[in-house]
Amino acid sequence: MAVYAAHLTRTLQGTPSVFQIAAQEALGATVKPALKRLAEYLAVVNPQRYAWCERWYDELYLLLDFCLQYHYLKHYAASFSECFYGLLRVPISPSNEFHSGVRLPELLEKGSLLLLVLVPYIKDKVEQIIEKWREDYEDGKLGKSISHQARKSAIKLYSIAHFVLEAAKFVQLARYLTGSTLSPALDFALLGLTVKEAPPPEPEEYCWSDLFKSLRTGQISDVTLTFPLLGRGLLNVVQYGAFGVQLLRWWEAKASPITSLPLPTPPQKSDQAVRWKNKCPVCLQPWKVPTVLPVSGFVFCYGCVSRHVRANGTCPVTKLPTTERTLIRLYLSG
Prior knowledge:
mainly alpha; 13 helices; transport; ubiquitin-protein transferase activity; peroxisome; Pex_N
């Protein structure tokens, strides 16, 4: 009983706030989209050499994420983003923690790696498949065959499962906030883990500041460049680079909305607009789920314009920049 009480005291000291939990989750969700933009840029600049990076990006990121998370779980008992915010994974069961020391028990370490790396990869792949089926459904390509009916059912089941999962995440976080549970997320609860603030790192015998000091004072003989030093430098670049990307995304989100810009002069009716009257400019067929793009005023099929905007970020006709969030569904009578 005394050991268990000591464990609880140790665990509850410096319990991270919900803001730290949310911040580390946001940082973890920033890395993949940022690197994907880089892969897309390389594929555009030199498609012959780098097109494969965009085509196999999910698998490349899976390998990178595995190496990164394995390193942090092994050395810091935390994920990449948790370590950045000074958090530490701790087993709720006292026997596990006191038996294994600083590192997580091997089973919990493997379980954490599985939930951090493989599960998000599978989730992204399933989302891509469901999104493709949803576009086919919106375009009216899914008929009454057994396989098409199964796809329609899968779309509905996925929507329900996604709603239930997000609701469960919210409930788990609310319970953590009120002190009803020690696990801030579902994956932590599944593994029997909680988080606490990591202890201050031990001072390093030789760090980058010592190296630069030796170079600045001209003591070249004292300069030592080791693999651990390079590794720590590389990891710091990755950490602060991810934080910088997150800061830029926040800055972009805080930018003035499009509604605050001055209204442009109405465009002149072009021959294209006359030729595409009551038709989608992309497929040149009568509208299916008519949707207007406010940046240009053209009306498209929802499936046609959403696919183009998602892939290119521009209007299919005018090439003006836009986002999928600006699409407006039209309900036409007759």
